[in-house]
Specification:
CATH class of the largest domain: Alpha Beta
CATH superfamily of the largest domain: Spore Coat Polysaccharide Biosynthesis Protein SpsA, Chain A
Low-confidence stretches: none
Distance between the termini: 59 Å
Strand order of the largest sheet: 7-6-1-8-13-10-16
Mean pLDDT: 89
Strand content: 15-25%
Number of strands: 27
Helix content: 40-55%
Largest sheet: 7 strands, mixed
């Protein structure tokens, strides 16, 4: 396998196969390249005929899986005014979090718990990490005289299937993964005159001339066992040699005019390297300005002095809203700030009407302030609450029961959510661009053909959440609240069951379990088929929504592919069922 084959195998290890065209869209390769890689993976026994992973590929993933990380944090640090004292760079804070703690947390997120930190300057300041995170410290007593090649040499025995991470970095997203298949070195797509390497057309890392620009060197790496063995050998040769006293560890990767391992290229906004106080302040400036803006917004909305607004922190940065947690007079609240262009998707006047309708009903969280012009909202924070786990049968039963109780209230508002016009609306937001799916028009025609059947079915419309996904159910003990009512409107309440299943990425068996959880007394075949129709229609609806967001730089990974697949698969399920019913009628007639 080459690098591309391994990249595609990694994607397939994390996502369900939905076709080569969709796979090409995810991995950024041409359809022909994906076709060649799939052929190789099938021929070499890494995929079976159903495009599932074989025992051979699973064994490869197991043997290549990350086992540990070595964090390099022995440097001299930065001068920090006004005290004019040095502080280890790894312990500088961005967004109130030390750089090294963010990296450790990101490693923990992918299951890496064996973490070795090479320390030197102010080594005592790292001691608390042993108790907090269970790390092991390795002391480099020559940190002031020698560069990080010598730090890595102290940890060389741990390098098998290991991440090597400099600690002067702040990564916006997690740079680590649960699965890896080859050794790599991370660079940015940004040009850097100080870089000595660049990515060539063959996707190799090669040296550049002193007058040329290279790809900015990030420094995070992953080393498989064979690479680690080579590096250990080179470290043993280089460490005693005085010529390498000031060398970076990357010199162990150089051979002739290239680097021995593959590049992993990330966007320039993926990571910030903190080599000066100015760079740190640039990151912090965004946070300070954000906090000041948030404080002023809250003060205006609740008509309270700014000094009463405390403990501001970003709770969630979503694709439509930013949620901020804050305190006032020893009570916690959540401020929702709509993201740019959210008004193209949502009517805040209609949302305000929904909140007026459900106010005091114990259905939702308690909204204390709402600006129908901007969509800015403040609600009471529910402590010790958790989101529904859609894979937990007990959680599913609780949430379907809550959903049915809500529907039974028969609440009503003046507006409705039309599924089919919303499909057209989201498509119109592409501003004339074509769908990324080559068979979109056929899929759309199939979905629109279901309208006649759906309209003819019996429905008892009421206020429906529309976005009743697992993440919007907050469970606190026996109490469940349904939050985020941006899309709520009059509609068939059974649409909510379909939307829950779509977001949970349920297969048909799980869909049926959700339906019978909502209908413990039993569900007739007509209603069940109607919910299948809603899944098909909802799949295209949210696929179009995802396409709009993707055209604005927001990526949804497998989720967007699955929504489009729901549209196609459940149209076929409905069509086949209707054909069978028609055949039975013809026979009986």
């Amino acid at each position: 396998m080459n690098k591309r084959d391994k990249d595609i195998l990694l994607i397939l290890s994390n996502h369900i196969y939905t076709g080569q065209r969709n796979l090409a869209a995810v991995c950024g390769c041409s359809l022909g390249a994906v076709n060649a890689s799939i052929a190789t993976l099938l021929k070499e026994g890494y995929l079976d005929k159903s495009m599932g992973l074989t025992v051979k590929s699973k064994n490869l993933l197991y043997s290549s899986a990350p086992a540990c990380a070595v964090l390099l944090a022995a440097g001299l640090g930065l001068w920090i005014p006004p005290h004019n004292a040095k502080k280890p760079t790894a312990l500088l804070e961005v967004h109130g979090e030390p750089l090294i703690e963010r990296l450790i947390s990101q490693l923990h997120e992918v299951g890496i718990k064996k973490i070795y930190i090479v320390v030197g300057f102010a080594k005592e300041q790292f001691e608390y990490l042993i108790d907090r995170y269970g790390v092991e410290l390795i002391v480099n007593s020559e940190y002031a005289k020698k560069n990080n090649l010598h730090s890595l040499a102290l940890a060389k025995e741990h390098l098998n299937n290991c991440y090597v991470v400099p600690c002067d970095l702040w990564c916006r997203n997690n740079p680590f993964q649960k699965n890896e298949l080859y050794s790599w070195y991370m660079v940015s797509d940004e040009e850097d005159v100080e870089s000595t390497i660049r990515v060539n057309r063959k996707q190799e890392l090669v040296l550049v001339s002193p007058s040329s620009k290279g790809n900015a060197m990030i420094g995070i790496s992953y080393l498989l066992e064979d690479t680690a063995e080579l590096i250990r050998s080179r470290l043993e040769d280089m460490v005693p040699d005085r010529r390498y006293k000031g060398s970076f560890w990357e010199e162990t990767l150089f051979e002739d005019e290239r680097i021995l391992i593959s590049p992993r290229v990330v966007s320039s906004d993926f990571v910030a390297e903190i080599k000066s106080l100015t760079q740190l302040q640039e990151l912090e400036t965004h946070t300070t300005a954000f906090v000041n803006t948030v404080t002023a917004t809250i003060s205006r909305l609740i008509q309270a002095p700014e000094h009463e607004i405390e403990d501001i922190s970003v709770l969630k940065m979503g694709t439509t809203n930013c949620s901020v947690l804050f305190s006032r007079r020893n009570k916690q609240y959540i401020l929702r700030i709509p993201c740019r262009e959210a008004e193209r998707l949502i009517s805040y006047q209609q949302e305000a009407e929904v909140y007026r309708t459900i106010s005091g009903s114990a259905i939702s969280d308690e909204v204390t302030h709402f600006d129908p012009d901007t969509g800015v909202k403040i609600s009471e924070y529910i402590p010790n609450a958790r989101h529904c786990d859609p894979q937990n049968p007990q959680d599913l039963a609780m949430c379907m029961k809550k959903l049915r109780q809500f529907h039974s209230t028969r609440l009503a508002v003046a507006h409705e959510f039309d599924l089919f016009s919303s499909i057209e609306h989201y498509e119109s937001l592409w501003d004339g661009a074509s769908s990324v799916y080559s068979d979109y028009q056929t899929t759309k025609e199939n979905i629109l053909s279901l309208r006649t059947y759906i309209d003819a079915m019996e429905k008892d419309c009421c206020l429906t959440h529309i976005d009743a996904i697992a993440e919007n159910f907050l469970i606190s003990g026996e109490d469940i609240r349904l939050i985020d009512w941006e899309y709520a409107a009059m509609q068939d309440p059974h649409v909510d069951i379909a939307m829950f299943c779509l977001h949970a990425l349920y297969d048909q068996k799980q869909v049926d379990e959700a339906i019978y959880s909502y209908f413990p007394e039993g569900c007739n075949s007509t209603t069940k088929l109607k919910i299948y129709c809603y899944i098909a229609v909802g799949g295209l609806l949210w696929s179009n929504w995802c396409e709009y967001k993707m055209k604005h730089g927001i990526e949804f990974g497998a989720y967007s592919l699955r929504q489009y697949r729901y549209a196609k698969d459940y149209f076929r399920i409905v069509r086949n069922e209707l054909n069978q019913q028609k055949e039975k009628q013809n026979v009986s007639g």
